[in-house]
């Protein structure tokens, strides 16, 4: 999404300037528009022309051995535990995917298979009376400290992420909360997972997998990866951080048991979003995520020796409201704000000039191009200033001059945005202008990109914001955490985990849980859409549009680009001979 984004491990993702995503594989697309009463509803481009992935696939024997890839990031993370709420970021995933195990992988069609570097087989061996999954591990797989990867690592991750101990600050519990036990099979390299209730997306679990020591206690889980990457198990290993230059360096791991990495090293460099395209054009970077920025897209495309690779994926741009803010705790106020924003105008502004269909997204789980998509927004998705005003009147917020007031207090919203990201600034300014017509005052607050999530959005220090979520081939389990109700820690305090809008209910949880338990595809789609209708009524995330994956990269780079659903093989990335 170049927007700030978080990534969903099993909870979904969001992002600032670049991020990851998975490509929608077609199927029956639904209606794109929410039927705004004002604004241009036209679409530009054709969804059918969008690629599933665009990575310049090249056989390994045609890829040069050696070389350095300089990879631009739009933020410099501090927590490298992707399963932690503060580490659940797109920029973290770009690094961790080169370093850590995942049990399964997806191809460009979203078809899932065992990741044979770590797993020789994974299958359901029983579905009655309970669902049982048996994983056969690759005996060659080792952590960088020399310890083998065994069933104990899988059990420890389940125990950390199942939600039973609220002191683990997890990004989400989806799937793990449905497991009854993880036990040793015939030996240490066989894992037997028994589910207390059916979980259709079982292949979404254990990716990434962290070692037993990381998941052993809340302290090691929460703090063990702060400004450090203590152990790895991938084709690359961690080399160094440079806090001044804001770089992360990883190098080929010669102890890797799979096909050796083609590159010698990758240096990730964090810059403000508006500086990335300049660094790329000047030859200081080999790649960065352009996202939905028409000026950056045009400049990157015109850079000699460069190309912008584009693909579809379950990445979507959205506006999120904080349900715990004083003003937005009232659902009718949230509904009024949603109806007072012309989403089509924002989509038109964001996407114009990107060779991408300008179509509204009216579903939180399925993209317009995916089978199962249907428009569930209802009247919440319709731009209707008159109805929005009526809702605010009924909530006690009445016009007094140019602004609305209640009990002498102005209706003011604080729109928090990352500095240096023109896309979010533009969205904020459009929102500010639209809501002023409704009598709602919006103040804009730019904050450092590195602090945007960890100091503002995750702690709930905002009223309204905009960023992007990145999904996976598993629509519901990928997104479950961002709509799930709060859990409680040992002190009884609410933990919203990946739900950054801080809006949830037992009804939404039950509906999503029903959808993830479905093993029948048709029923799963129906139940997913039932959950989506409830989320629209709660007005947590107001979807805007499916975000294009636009990745600027040197045209000599192979096996890398806009990946859609495809899980990159970092060992195959390199420069063509």
Please give the structural blueprint:
Blueprint: E1 4-7, E2 14-16, E3 68-73, H1 90-96, E4 104-106, E5 112-114, E6 119-126, E7 132-137, H2 151-161, E8 179-184, E9 190-195, H3 212-215, H4 218-223, E10 236-242, E11 247-252, E12 265-270, H5 273-281, E13 287-289, H6 294-301, E14 306-311, E15 315-321, H7 331-339, H8 343-351, H9 385-394, E16 398-400, E17 403-406, E18 409-410, E19 412-418, H10 422-436, E20 441-447, H11 452-457, E21 464-470, H12 475-483, E22 487-488, E23 494-495, H13 506-517, H14 521-538, E24 541-546, E25 549-554, E26 557-558, E27 574-575
Parallel strand pairs: 1-21, 3-12, 19-20
Antiparallel strand pairs: 1-2, 4-5, 6-7, 7-9, 8-9, 10-11, 11-12, 13-25, 14-25, 15-21, 15-24, 16-17, 17-18, 22-23, 26-27
């Amino acid at each position: 999404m170049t927007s700030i984004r978080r990534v969903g491990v099993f909870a979904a993702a969001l992002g600032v300037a670049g991020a990851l995503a998975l490509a929608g594989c077609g199927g029956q697309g639904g209606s794109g528009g929410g039927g705004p009463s004002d604004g241009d509803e036209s679409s530009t481009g054709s969804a059918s022309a969008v690629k599933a992935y665009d990575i310049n696939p090249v056989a390994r024997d045609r890829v040069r051995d050696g070389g350095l890839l300089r990879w631009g990031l739009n933020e410099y993370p501090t927590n490298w535990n992707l399963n932690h709420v503060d580490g659940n970021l797109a920029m973290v995933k770009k690094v961790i995917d080169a370093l850590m195990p995942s049990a399964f992988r997806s191809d460009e069609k979203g078809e899932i298979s065992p990741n044979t570097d770590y797993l020789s087989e994974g299958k359901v061996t029983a579905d009655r009376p309970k669902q049982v999954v048996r994983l056969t591990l690759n005996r060659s797989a080792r952590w960088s400290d020399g310890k083998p990867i065994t069933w104990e690592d899988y059990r420890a991750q389940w125990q950390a992420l199942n939600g039973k101990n609220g002191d683990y600050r997890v990004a989400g519990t989806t799937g793990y909360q449905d497991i009854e036990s993880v036990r040793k099979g015939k030996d240490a390299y066989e894992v037997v997972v028994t589910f207390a209730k059916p979980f259709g997306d079982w292949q979404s679990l254990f990716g990434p997998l962290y070692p037993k020591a990381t998941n052993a206690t809340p302290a090691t889980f929460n703090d063990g990866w702060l400004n450090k990457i203590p152990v790895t198990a991938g084709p690359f290993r961690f080399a160094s951080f440079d806090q001044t230059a804001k770089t992360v360096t990883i190098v080929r791991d010669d102890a890797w048991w799979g096909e050796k990495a083609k590159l010698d090293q990758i240096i990730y460099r964090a810059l403000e979003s508006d500086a990335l395209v300049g660094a790329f054009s000047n030859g200081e970077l080999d790649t960065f995520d352009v996202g939905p920025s028409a000026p950056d897209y045009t400049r990157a495309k015109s850079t000699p020796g460069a190309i912008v690779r584009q693909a579809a994926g379950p990445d979507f741009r959205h506006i999120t409201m904080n349900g715990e803010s004083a003003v937005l705790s009232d659902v009718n106020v949230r509904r009024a704000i949603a109806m007072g924003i012309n989403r089509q105008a924002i989509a038109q502004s964001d996407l114009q000039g990107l060779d991408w269909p300008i179509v509204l997204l009216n579903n939180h789980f399925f993209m317009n191009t995916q089978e199962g998509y249907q428009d569930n927004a209802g009247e919440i998705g319709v731009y209707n200033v008159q109805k929005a005003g009526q809702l605010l009147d009924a909530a006690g917020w009445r016009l007094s001059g140019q602004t609305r007031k209640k009990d002498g207090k102005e209706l003011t919203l604080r729109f928090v945005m990352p500095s240096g990201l023109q896309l979010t600034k533009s969205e904020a300014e459009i929102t500010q202008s639209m809501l002023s017509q409704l009598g709602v005052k919006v103040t804009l607050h730019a904050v450092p990109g590195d602090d945007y999530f960890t100091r503002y959005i995750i702690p709930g220090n905002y009223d309204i914001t905009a960023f992007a979520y990145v999904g996976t081939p598993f629509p519901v389990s990928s997104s479950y955490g961002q709509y799930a109700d709060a859990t409680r820690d040992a002190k009884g305090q609410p933990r919203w985990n990946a739900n950054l809008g801080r809006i949830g209910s037992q009804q939404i949880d039950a509906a999503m849980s029903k959808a993830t338990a479905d093993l029948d595809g048709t029923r799963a789609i129906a139940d997913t859409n039932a959950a989506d209708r409830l989320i629209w009524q709660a007005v947590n995330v107001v979807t805007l549009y499916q975000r294009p994956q636009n990745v600027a990269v040197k045209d000599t780079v192979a096996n890398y680009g806009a990946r859609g659903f495809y899980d990159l093989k970092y060992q195959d990335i390199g420069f063509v001979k």
